[in-house]
Design goal:
With about 200 residues, the protein is α+β, with helices and mostly antiparallel strands. The chain has 7 helices and 14 strands. The chain has helices at about 15-20, 40-50, 65-70, 80, 175-180, 185-190, 190-200, and strands at about 1-5, 5-15, 25-30, 35-40, 55-65, 85-90, 95-100, 105, 115-120, 130-135, 140, 145, 155-160, 165-170.
Length: about 200
């Protein structure tokens, strides 16, 4: 494990030939503190190794610490248009996954035909898998699927690309404000005051 300002980083050198000889996927832990792990199948490693132009690639999994994850805790963008009704709230420690060639060059991995699988420890039983879409500054499930998990407190995910991944839950924003405004509480608190409380 290597310490970084964003949190601990686990690094593994993976060889397509060694994985083929092992006759099963490689399971790489994101660190004991995260409870997360990544399963790399021969198909995934083959696609990544082909993109790298070699047999061996380096995998890094970083479990983002509280400081690094704080900006990803929610993608509440009510200020944009007022039309957005859901926000995603973080329910696991985010993990960042990257592959590099043997010389350290970052490998761009997207549209995998064989999805990679990961296991995330989550705080909420209804959490789903998502990745951080940097261009939209929000959690997204595009290219990510939540799979059935028998382990309470964990979710299984599959993804066709690399990114920062986490478990999230979606919460209603405007509908909560409207429901409170229409309830008895709405008689006690002005809607503007409640909106300011929600903003933080």
């Amino acid at each position: 494990s290597i310490e970084s300002p964003s949190g601990p980083v686990e690094v593994a050198a993976l060889s397509w030939q060694a994985l083929a000889d092992a006759d099963g996927p490689a399971e790489i832990s994101a660190g004991a503190d995260t409870g997360a792990s990544l399963e790399i199948s021969l198909g995934v490693l083959g696609e990544v190794a082909e993109a790298a132009g070699g047999d061996t690639v380096l995998l890094s999994i970083a479990g983002l610490n509280e400081d690094a994850a704080s900006s990803l805790a929610t993608d509440d963008v009510r200020a944009e248009s007022g039309a957005r009704r859901l926000a995603s709230l973080l329910q696991s420690q985010p993990i960042s996954i990257n592959f590099r060639s043997a010389d350290g060059t970052k490998i761009k991995v997207q549209n995998l035909t064989t999805p990679m699988k990961m296991r995330l420890k989550v705080e909420h039983p209804n959490a789903t898998c998502a990745y951080w879409d940097e261009s939209a500054a929000k959690w997204s499930s595009e290219g990510v699927q939540t799979l059935f998990s028998e382990d309470p407190g964990f979710i299984q995910c599959s993804a066709t690309h690399l990114s920062i991944f986490a478990g999230v839950v979606e919460v209603a924003l405007r509908n909560v404000l409207l429901a409170v405004a229409c309830s008895t509480l709405g008689l006690l608190i002005q809607l503007e005051a409640l909106e300011k409380l929600m903003d933080g």
